[in-house]
Request: fold
Amino acid sequence: MLLLEDHGPPPPFFAGEYHIEAAILPWQIAGCFALRKQVFCTEQQIFSGDDRDAIDDVCIHLAASSCMFAHEDEIIGTVRIHQPEPGLWWGSRLAVAARLRRVGGLGASLIRLAVGTAKAQGAKTFLAHVQAQNAPLFEAMDWRRLDEKMLHGRLHYLMQADLAAYTALDGVVLRVLPPLRRP
Reply:
């Protein structure tokens, strides 16, 4: 009789590929809202109940999806961008599912597509209010701090992307392949 040792639960599953693109399908947009609610309302408790606002009606939602056998399966990351005046673009509500925050490249790829999409549409300036703990990632990606302020009870930095460091990306789907070694 073969006895199997108990090694605890199996390790978590991580998809072999992630796609990042403009969210245009209803399930993608719903997934972006659900992830934002999880991150900003449940985890961080920045908002009560829902984080939606008027910007959601005029923005471009970008979504990172996990892929199973080349089919998109679940929204695991999001960011939104909007242009309040010609040439000026803002990014906001960057979120990655908690279990995937250590999978290399998801947050950075969302930022890259956000800035690249705005640049392809004529951005002259790209700004974001960035939570303090995320500032080092943005600085490593050619952003600079302009100011700091408390927003929703948390320290944020007003930051600006160096557009010269970004390629214009129009209608692109970014593929992120996680490292072979799991987090």
